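Bench notes, bay 3.
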Amino acid sequence: MTPTFLLVHGDREYLRAPGEELQTDLGVLTVPDDAEPGDRLETHLGDEFVVRDPRGPDLFDHFERTGAPMMPRDIGLVVGFTGAAAGDRVLDAGTGTGVLAAYLGRLDADVVTYERDAEFAEVARENMRLAGVAETVDVRTGDVLESMGTLVDGPGFDILTLDTEDAPAVVRRAPDLLVSGGFVVVYSPFVEGSRAAVEAAADAGLTDVTTHETIQRRMKFDDRGSRPDTRGVGHTGYLTVARWE
C-alpha cells in the first residue's frame, strides 16, 4: 500500500502520498516516490517541509470528519482497559470518522466496523487508506444488529466497541459475539446511555462492569504560578467496560 506522509513546516501540516503535489503560498513541491521520514523537501520557492510518518494524533487532526470523533484520550482508555493488541479480532459499531478503528488497526488488530450511513462509511474507508490500515480494517455499511446472524456464526471477537444509540441492544448479544474473557466497551456522551449499557450488561451476565467519566485537564505555567488551564472542556464522555466469562 502506498504510504501517506505528513509534510511539516512550522505549525503547518499536510498529508500527501508519494507522487502527489502540495501547493501552498510557500510554493509547490511534489513528494518523491522514494521519500522517507526525516527527508527535507524544498518548494520551488525554497521553503522546506520535513517528511514524517503520521502517528495516531496526526490522523485525528487530519482525517476528514463526519461528526465528533472519539478523542485520543478516550481511545487510550479503551486500549488500556481491554489490552487491545496485535492479532485481536475487534467488532466496532458506529464507525463515524473512523478514528478508533484506525488506532486499533495500527495496533495490528483485525477490525470489522459498521457504519449505517453509506456516505460516512465511504469517508471512513478513505480515512483508513490514509492511516495505512485499509487491509486490516473492514468498513462495512449497515447495522450491526441486522448483521448479527452472520457475525454470530463466525469465530468470536476479542473486543466489542460500541458508539451507537442502540449499544444496549448489542451488549445483550455480547455473549454470542465474544470469546471467553473478551471485553465490551460502550462510549456514550450521556450518562443515561451508560446506565442503559450497565443494565444491559447485567442482563447478559457480563462481569467486571465499570463506568468511567473521561476528563483531562491541560496544565498552564506562567510567571504568576501553575494551575489547570481554564480554557476548553475537560469532559468528553463516559466509557462502560464489561467482560464475558
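Next record in the batch:
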Amino acid sequence: MPLLIQNRGLDCITSTAELFDKYPHLQENARKFSSMPLVDVDPKGLLYVQQREFAATTPADNCVSVIGSGDATTCHLVVLRHTGSGAVCLAHCDGSSTWTEVPLLVKAVTSLSDISKEGRLELHLAGGFNDESKTSLKLSLNILAAFQKIKEDIYLETCCITEMNDIVVDGTHRPIVYGIGVDVKTGEVFPSSFTYKGPAEELRSARTFTGGQMADTYDSSRGLVQIGPCKWSPNLDIAFWLSQDDDTILKYLSTSPMAEPPHFVQHMKTTIRFLLEHPNSDSLFPGGQPQFYHRTASGDWERAV
C-alpha cells in the first residue's frame, strides 16, 4: 500500500513543496509541532538515539519512558508507532542507506505488535531545513518514497520536514526543531533537547564517524542498550583534524556548517580523540561481544558485566 494521508494514498510527488500544497493540513500540523515548547528530557527514563541508530520498545517497558534524539540538521528523525499495541520506534536517519533502513524500522515495530488487531501504524517525521545543497530535501523525498514501498498501511501524521522546519536567523537558514522525544506510554511526540546522550556516547559516535550502518541499539525484552561490536581501521589518518580551526572542521565534517549546534566542533574533536585512543576496536569488545548497559535503580545506565 502507498503511504496514507487522511486515509487516502499519497499521490506521486516530486518535491516537498508539492506535498504541502496538496495536503495543507500537514503544513498546519507542522507549524503547530515546531511551535510547541521545547522539552528538556530528564536523563532518568531516557533512551537516547544517536545518528544512524534506532530503538524500539513498548509501553510495558519499565526501563524507558522516553525515546529521544537530537542534533539533527539535515538529518531526519523518524517515529513509527502502532496505536493498538503502543509499540514505538525512533530512528535518526542521515541518508546513508534510507531504502534499507526504513524496512528495519517497520519490522522493529511490527515484531513488537499484533498488527492484525485493532490499531494502525502512524508515522511522524521531523528534521531537515532549506540548506543550500538540498541535502534535506533529498532525504525528505527518499524517506517518503521508501515508506511508499512498505506493504503495511502507514498513516503520515506529522511532517515537520525541510521547508516546514526552516527558520532564517541573521540571514542564515537553520532548523527550528533539532531534536524530538516520544513518550513510550502515551505515544506523544514533542520537540526536545537533551543534556545526556549516552550511554557510551563516544563509542557510538565513533561507530558512526567510521561508517557504521544503521544499528538497533536496544533490546526491549531485556531492557539493555546494546552497542557493537564494530570495527574501524587502526590506521585512520585523522589526528590532523585536532589542529584545525573550528571553521575548517565545520566546513569539511558537517553537511550544514552554518546550522550546527554550538557543541558540534567539540563533539567531533572528542570523537576523533576517542578513535586515536582506541586504534584497535577489538579491545572494546572482549571476545567479540557487544557492550551492554542496563538501567540502575537510580535511573542511570550502567555497563553490564
